[in-house]
Amino acid sequence: MKKRVPVSQIMTKNVVTLSTKDDLVTAEELFKKNRIRHIPVTAGDQILGMLSYTDLMRISFADAIDEHEQDVDTMVYNMFTIEQVMVKDVICVAPQATIQEVAAFLAQKEFHALPVVDGETLVGIVTTTDLINYLLAQY
What InterPro entries does the annotation carry (predicted)? Predict the structure, then answer.
């Protein structure tokens, strides 16, 4: 296995983002349409926070209701803003951080995605899925 490979080699570069002006219904649509579980919240190229699909599920009653699930989700989502639900103190990594460093960090924490920033500019996102796919490609 290669050592010292930068995370920029495996990160997603075309990142789906949200702004604080977007609503949670839009967020859910982006999660489902793009089949992703984490979306950085940005102002321009700068990261303000991170929203995960799990964050949405925590405020949703969807699991408890079958019949009018979409109506309930929309009603609940309209009670909150992205800024209220997102994680604000986001830990970021630089593009030159190694895959090993990122893997060790994620293995110790309770989250599964890290924004990749060059200075203050969001340039990508790396997830546990990216790490698993990288490891699978090594075999």
Answer: CBS_dom, CBS_dom_sf, Diverse_CBS-Domain
> Is 86 within a domain?
yes
φ and ψ of 61, to 5 deg: -100, 15
Tally of domains in the chain = 1
In angstroms, rounded to a whole number, what is the distance separating the alpha carbons of residues 14 and 6? 17
pLDDT in tens, 109-122: 888 999 999 999 99
Q: Which residues of 120-134 are buried (b: 16+ CB within 10 A; e: fewer)?
A: eebbbbbbbebbeeb
- The answer to whether 96 and 6 are in contact (CB under 8 A) is yes
Please give the torsion angle defined by the CA atoms of residues 21, 23, 27 and 33, in that order, rounded to the nearest 10 degrees: -100
**Does any domain span residue 118?**
yes
Q: Is residue 19 part of a domain?
A: yes
Q: Is residue 2 part of a domain?
A: no
- Per the structure, the complete domain to which residue 20 belongs is given by 7-137
pTM: 0.86
* Two structure tokens written together for 67: 């019949």
pLDDT at 64 over 80: no
| Distances 73 to 54, 66, 77, 121 between C-alpha atoms, Å | 14, 11, 6, 33
